[in-house]
Amino acid sequence: MRLGLDAMGGDFAPEVAVKGAIMALAELDKGCRIVLYGDEARIRAVLEAEQCNSEQIEIVATTEVIEMYDHPVRAFQQKSDSSITVGFHHLAEGLIDGFASAGSTGAIMVGSTQVVRSIEGIIRPTIATVVPTITGAPVVLLDVGLNVDCKPDVLEQYALIGSVFAKSVLEIENPRVALLNIGEEATKGDLNTRATYEHLQVGAETGRYNFVGNIEASHIFTSRVADVVVCDGFVGNIVLKLAEGLYEINKSMGVTNTFWEGLNYEMAGGIPVLGVNAPVTIGHGKSTPLAIKSMLLATEHTIRLKLVERLREAFR
Amino acid sequence: MRLGLDAMGGDFAPEVAVKGAIMALAELDKGCRIVLYGDEARIRAVLEAEQCNSEQIEIVATTEVIEMYDHPVRAFQQKSDSSITVGFHHLAEGLIDGFASAGSTGAIMVGSTQVVRSIEGIIRPTIATVVPTITGAPVVLLDVGLNVDCKPDVLEQYALIGSVFAKSVLEIENPRVALLNIGEEATKGDLNTRATYEHLQVGAETGRYNFVGNIEASHIFTSRVADVVVCDGFVGNIVLKLAEGLYEINKSMGVTNTFWEGLNYEMAGGIPVLGVNAPVTIGHGKSTPLAIKSMLLATEHTIRLKLVERLREAFR
User: Fold this and answer.
1) Which of A173, A174, A245, B34 could form a disulfide with B218, with the two C-beta atoms 3.0–4.6 Å apart?
2) What contacts B108, CB < 8 A, 6 or more positions away?
């Protein structure tokens, strides 16, 4: 297996990314290689400083970097020798099996949708996050900020995507899929959510997934109601940021325990892009080496469990 | 001042409501009376059991109760001798200065909009909540679940309503008003939020309030960005329920501190209905005596600080 990593993504690149790659090696199979995309001389300098000469690390030299302030679409095309652009072309060509980056989310999405492309039948790819719960069971929340103004047919597909993710990656047998809403009854919610509820009922009847109805926000982190929580990206992003904000507040007050540590992005393994033809993982711009390591391990996990193949089957 | 309280609202009525009223008396002015609406014999039994014969408590005997499962509009009209229906008519006639209830939220909204009615110029009344922050400064969040599918002109009014509330009730001089969004830049968000941003810019230019731009959910509880956070009721309700859910999780794990206690609904004083012609407060269905007491004190505070008059002035 060959894991692609954008060495130029995130703050303090390439130091942080290279250090994270070295950390990941300790937990990866000997047959697994990490392919670093970026400034070769700078990458080599970090490897040397870290006294790493592992054969499991390869470098693909690139000369450009897409910055956070660049226009994603334009930069992706114009900076054709950037770590992200080259990485995505290699991914599409099968030279690597997955690609992870803590760089420009916009550019990663351009690469995902324009180079790797959506799986046939999927209207809009999505990004998901696995959130912790008090029981320790993971819950998938999607979309967490990629797509806003999602129509019911798009959200209906997220139910299936989330369900396949929960089965394949979290190994939950018959994941309970719920719609995030402001009440439990079918008649609750705004117009779009109510219409989505009806779509999900139809989807459940045809056996696409196990729809269990609405879930209120207070139950997301209990795992009592659902394993997969479907929502529009506007709402999902607010849920995620709110939880992260409260995690930070707790941390600043010295509150630490297993539940809250589950909201630590460093451990979360990045945000997978779901619905495109190859595994792509987005990391936090502030990623530490530990966060990069977690992201690489999560990407490896996704490849090994054949998530993309299983999504393709589900939408065939 | 005469504070109306629905003695039949909430679980374990009228015991809980009456006990809460007795608790409130200890902190209210001697000139303040609490008017209890409900089953006179049962109310008297509780007062006797609690050995309370205060002249500050009055009873208005009513014979019916609007239940949580009743259809709010129909029940409000058909159960014309219910504690909520009579209470709202008394409020509209000026026999009481404010009304608080832990009963059917739907029926309270019917009374608010059809009997007390909206303040002239306000498109849709709203419900707000005051959330705690790590600095101890309060932040107003609105709408928290009354209105979904809010158009930009409705949300624009919520900015003004929230600003007047923050000035009058929280005594913040020049409240910073922000729009809840998934990014800080003006171009972020879904279609409705982006359109609202433009409305708020115009409102700020004409001096209606101090609009400071977008706020991300991670900053709601820091008070670093805003004193007033405006959002659609769908999103606001999710924020509130999520925070309440995490409060419960923390509590179950033994985490307690001032910040999190601020999310304890028992201390929060209920949810004020804003934009109608008299003070109305909605309590939690699960209200304890302490929660009822907090709600009565919050209602008294609102009356004393002339919130309704100040809202009328703002929309004149």
Assistant:
1) A245
2) B84, B101, B273, B280, B282
Tens of pLDDT, residues A86-143: 999 999 999 999 999 999 999 999 999 999 999 999 999 999 999 999 999 999 999 9
The reply to whether ipTM tops 0.85 is yes
Enumerate the residues of chain A whose CB falls inside 8 A of the CB of residue B180: 238
Instruction: Please give the Cα distance from A45 to A43 (Å, whole number).
Output: 5
Residue A274 host element (H or E): strand A271-274
Please name which of B124, B130, B239, B129 lies closest in space to residue B180, comparing C-alpha atoms: B239
pLDDT of residue A264: 84
The 3-class secondary structure across B140-169, one letter per residue, is: EEECCCCCCCCCHHHHHHHHHHHHHHHHHC
Is there a contact between B8 and B103 (Cβ–Cβ < 8 Å)?
A: yes
Three-state DSSP string of A89-131: HHHHHCCCCEEEECCCHHHHHHHHHHHHCECCCCCCCEEEEEE
Which of A45-49, A85-89, B247-251 is predicted with the least confidence, judged by mean pLDDT? B247-251
DSSP state of A275: S
Structure tokens, A243: 């939880």
Using an 8 Å CB-CB cutoff, list residues of chain B that contact chain A: 134, 145, 148-149, 180, 182, 189-191, 193, 216-222, 232-235, 237-246, 248-250, 252-253, 255, 257, 259
> Where does the pLDDT of residue B50 fall: very low under 50, low under 70, confident under 90, or very high at 90 and above?
very high
Integer Cα distance of A196 and B204 in angstroms: 36
Burial of A252 (0-12, 13-18, 19+ CB in 10 A): exposed
Residues B302-311: tens digit of each pLDDT:
999 999 999 9
What residues form DSSP beta bridges with A5?
Answer: A36, A100
Q: In terms of DSSP bridges, do strands A33-38 and A2-6 run parallel, antiparallel, or are they unpaired?
A: parallel
Rounded average pLDDT over B251-261: 87
Task: Quote the minimal CA–CA distance from A222 to chain B in Å.
Answer: 8
pLDDT at B45: 98
Rounded Cα gap, residues B176 and B226, in angstroms: 5
- Taking only the tens place, the pLDDT of each residue in A249-297 is 998 988 878 898 888 888 888 999 999 999 999 998 889 999 999 999 9
Given a contact cutoff of 8 angstroms between Cβ atoms, the answer to whether B162 and B236 are in contact is no
